[in-house]
TrEMBL record:
Protein name (database record): Flavin-containing monooxygenase
Cited SUPFAM superfamilies: FAD/NAD(P)-binding domain (SSF51905)
The protein's required cofactors: FAD
Family: Belongs to the FMO family.
Length: 120
């Protein structure tokens, strides 16, 4: 499902949330929140994955597909870069980035080519 044509070249966070809401509605998805995956195992007999989650209640899922989204980008890992301590401007990880307002009119260097870096 492509972004709506009315979206700017670089959508805001609000645009993206609106897009996700529309995606959920269009495809009839029912996201589950506040659940922790307790176990995952492939059942060779059924050819499916068994996933057990816990949260407000314990839920078991059985599915042919498994997508693992670890949230690794939310853990800021900033490598030591020679000269970084001498830099007088802000150095921040994408997990701390909210919007570009504080950088408006400034020259900015974004290091990294993951999804978050490319979006910024």
């Amino acid at each position: 499902m492509p972004f709506p044509s009315k979206f700017p070249t670089y959508p805001t966070k609000e645009h993206f949330v609106d897009y996700l809401d529309a995606y959920v509605s269009k495809f009839g998805l029912e996201p589950q929140f506040n659940q922790t995956v307790e176990s995952v195992a492939y059942d060779h007999t059924l050819g499916s994955w068994r996933v057990k989650t816990v949260g407000l209640e314990e839920i078991s899922y059985l599915s042919r597909w498994l997508v693992v989204a670890t949230g690794e980008n939310s853990e800021d890992v900033v490598p030591a870069i020679e000269g970084m301590n001498d830099f007088e401007g802000p150095v921040l990880h994408t997990s701390s980035y909210k919007n570009g307002e504080e950088f408006s009119g400034k020259n900015v260097l974004v290091v990294g080519c993951g999804n978050s870096g490319m979006e910024i």
